């Protein structure tokens, strides 16, 4: 049985999702199936994405997602497409041994085979801890000592997921408990699979928290989870290299203006920030020996 990679998006994030596919094919060295699941996008946009990926030898099977997502809680932070990951059991059959889900705002930087073969210790899901977010654990009434993971990178043991019905349960819980969705479907998935998932190395979901605390730590998959994206007009100093990559990748695409230009001032601020971190302030944290948590660095 094979492993599938799934990236979900709507029209707004379609250029970023295409970049995620390209990063999987190139840096990730993925030769197997990649599914790009698209909702609320025009036929012209979908066809443009198909041609763009084909021209760059980064083919993906594009699936139009037409299920009703109107019952879910959304706000200015996310679109209904965020909830597509709760519907993967309606998209993929039992052919697959594992399914790796990636958010559209991710970029793969290393070969993915170590992640795809990761030991999940008999559990149904592998994910990266969201740096021990105790507030969410308490608010969701999860078990004492539970960890809280980020949903941007999810590795499913697919037969176990289908047999357990956990995604269907997550969908029901999301609709019936919208008042708990401070962080949208991430809350409900954490609640439903509490105790059933295995923590993965932090580098497999390198969010802005890690970028700020560990700027010299090698990322495996970068996840631009904060509202300021490297392709946007306001470019965080810690994503400048990524801003340049998105600009170069999309400059001859159907969306040449999606990634804003990287000005000299952006690069200068990025270099200044790196200098301050390395020589002035110094890193304040490091990864634990197993790569699962952040640890403060002693000043002694």
Q: Could you explain the architecture of this structure?
A:
The protein has helices at 14-25, 43-55, 113-116, 134-139, 158-164, 166-176, 185-192, 208-213, 240-250, 264-281, and strands at residues 2-10, 34-39, 61-64, 96-102, 106-108, 125-129, 149-157, 197-199, 221-223, 285-287, 294-296. The protein is of the alpha/beta class and 300 residues long. The protein has a domain at 2-203: Spore Coat Polysaccharide Biosynthesis Protein SpsA, Chain A. A seven-stranded mixed β-sheet has the order 3-2-1-4-7-6-8, with helices on both faces. A two-stranded antiparallel sheet has the order 5-9. The protein has a two-stranded antiparallel ribbon with strand order 10-11. Helix 1 packs parallel to helix 2 and helix 6 packs across helix 7. The radius of gyration is 19 Å and the shape is globular. The model has no long low-confidence stretch (mean pLDDT 87).
Give a brief outline of the structure:
The chain is α/β, with parallel strands linked by helices.
Write the layout of secondary structure elements.
Layout: E1 2-10, H1 14-25, E2 34-39, H2 43-55, E3 61-64, E4 96-102, E5 106-108, H3 113-116, E6 125-129, H4 134-139, E7 149-157, H5 158-164, H6 166-176, H7 185-192, E8 197-199, H8 208-213, E9 221-223, H9 240-250, H10 264-281, E10 285-287, E11 294-296
Parallel strand pairs: 1-2, 1-4, 2-3, 6-8
Antiparallel strand pairs: 4-7, 5-9, 6-7, 10-11
Helix pairs in contact: 1-2, 6-7
User: What is the succession of H and E elements?
Assistant: EHEHEEEHEHEHHHEHEHHEE
Mind telling me which CATH architecture of the domain at 2-203 this is? Alpha-Beta Complex
Helicity range of the residues? Answer: 25-40%
Spans of at least 5 consecutive residues with low confidence? none
Shape: globular
Fraction of residues in β-strands: 15-25%
Largest beta sheet: strand ordering: 3-2-1-4-7-6-8
| Biggest sheet character | 7 strands, mixed
| Average pLDDT score | 87
Enumerate how many helices there are, as a single number.
10
Which fold name corresponds to the CATH topology of the domain at 2-203? Spore Coat Polysaccharide Biosynthesis Protein SpsA, Chain A
In CATH's first tier, which class of the domain at 2-203 applies? Answer: Alpha Beta
Beta strand count: 11
Structural class: alpha/beta
